[in-house]
From TrEMBL:
One of its GO terms (biological process) is methylation. Keywords: Methyltransferase, S-adenosyl-L-methionine, Transferase. One of its GO terms (molecular function) is methyltransferase activity. This is RNA methyltransferase. The keyword Nucleotide-binding does not apply. The active site is at 358 (nucleophile), 358. Transmembrane segments: none annotated. It comes from Blastomonas marina. InterPro entries: MeTrfase_TrmA_AS (IPR030390), SAM-dependent_MTases_sf (IPR029063), U5_MeTrfase_fam (IPR010280).
Length: 401
């Protein structure tokens, strides 16, 4: 007798109503007693030849309807798991293929050639990328030239290459490369010039050192160009950023004073500053300074504050004057900051909290504290920026009645 797959689990396996997990199955498939999968209407041919070996994607066998359901259900189930009632769970925004604007690839020498790609999910074996359906084509176009460049560096090679699509083109940071002698220095400059690289930096263990940057590299946020420090956080796709920012800006309508916590370069700060005063709080010094400089150059009503919100969260009296708080913490969540927000008295101006998260588990844990303090989750917007992966993002709006 066969069982139907009713949903996709957090780790990407198909799950039956009885709770049986089946790797490779998607919602609508059937699985027989011996584990054979009978594909259903949402099971499609994976577009990439490297699937499922490549660790970059886990769900290429699912169509967009099954992926949308997966992203939406994961967000809703995280809320349900902590007993958080959600007013409205919106449909999930999925980023299209070939839109990822940042990725770290690995490279090594093998069999006389250079392998460049992602690692296999459960091993350190490198998948040598011949195609990629998630990377923006401008990033993928760097793979072959990078093979050529690295082939000229003798000896054992084990480097990480972070590619980011900035306003000026591809920003390329190579970690772990030893550059010795004029010939190798020239090879770097030739590579950068010939392939229109926006910035080339090498980190041989002592931090990134720029070798090529014909004009300062920026990323435009809310119409404001912001200097892009190495390693600074960026939303994974422009479409994902637009979905998250559009949602938060809509929720912020009518707010005059907003605190943007874990602000990074100002992904939310600058769009929000079009109609409100914004306090942008961030712990990474480079990101904070970039946000601060652009706020001043663009004359936006932004006050940038350098502060560690884990050790030193904003206290209730510091946010009481804001009518909205936006939080977008790292995967670990924002427990200490949420504990402080939960203590803001109902009589304070603070009327809305938008919590953006890349980890439904820490989000739900934190939000439980908000709910216990009288806040209600009015709206949940799931976002799938990492198409075909099990990684999801969400934006949530908390209000007090
Ligand atoms: C998920 S990113 C979001 C950044 C920004 N909101 C965006 O959308 O681009 C989290 C940010 O929190 C910052 N961060 C990490 N730990 C922090 C801490 N203890 N206090 C304040 N900011 C922190 C990181 O540097 C990063 O910029």
């Amino acid at each position: 007798m066969s069982e139907a797959i009713v949903r996709i689990a957090a780790r990407g396996e198909g799950v039956t109503a009885e709770g049986r997990h089946v790797r490779g199955a998607v919602t609508g498939d059937h699985v027989s007693g011996d584990g054979a999968i009978v594909p259903g209407p949402h099971h499609v041919a994976p577009p990439c030849r490297h699937f499922p070996q490549c660790g970059g994607c886990q769900l290429q066998q699912a169509d967009s309807a099954a992926l949308e359901q997966f992203v939406r259900e994961r967000a809703a189930m995280a809320a349900g798991g902590q007993g958080i009632a959600v007013g409205e769970v919106c449909s999930a925004e999925l980023s299209p293929p070939r839109t990822r604007r940042r990725a770290t690839l690995h490279a090594m020498r093998a069999g006389g050639g250079i392998l460049i790609g992602f690692r296999e999910e459960k091993s350190h074996r490198l998948i040598d990328l011949a195609e990629c359906h998630v990377l923006d084509p401008a990033l993928f176009a760097m793979v072959e030239p990078l093979r050529g460049l690295l082939a000229g560096f003798p000896g054992k090679l084990a480097v990480d290459i972070t590619l980011t699509l900035a306003d000026q083109g591809v920003d390329c940071l190579i970690k772990g490369l030893r550059v010795e002698g004029l010939k190798q220095e020239e090879a770097l400059l030739d590579f950068a010039g010939e392939h229109g690289v926006a910035r080339l930096a090498i980190d041989d263990g002592l931090g990134p050192e720029n070798r090529w940057e014909p004009e300062p590299v920026t990323i435009t946020l809310g119409g404001v160009p912001v200097a892009l420090p190495h390693g600074a956080f960026l939303q994974a796709t422009p479409q994902g950023e637009a979905a998250l920012v559009g949602t938060v800006v809509e929720w912020a309508q009518g707010s005059m004073v907003i605190a943007d916590l874990f602000a990074g370069l100002g992904t939310f700060t600058f769009p929000l500053a079009a109609s409100a005063k914004v306090l942008a709080v961030e712990a990474a010094r480079d990101a904070h300074l970039a946000c601060k400089a652009s706020a001043s150059a663009s004359k936006r009503a932004v006050h940038a504050l350098h502060r560690d919100l884990y050790r030193n969260p904003l206290r209730p009296e510091e946010v009481a004057g804001c009518d909205m708080v936006v939080l977008d913490p790292p995967r670990a969540g924002a427990r200490a900051q949420v504990e402080q927000l939960a203590q803001v008295p109902p009589t304070a101006k603070l009327a809305r909290i938008a919590y953006v998260s890349c980890n439904p588990a820490s989000w739900a844990r934190d939000c439980k504290a908000l709910v216990e303090a009288g806040w209600r989750c009015a709206e949940l917007r799931p976002v799938g920026q990492f198409l075909w992966s099990t990684h999801i993002e969400l934006a949530s709006l908390f209000v007090r009645d």
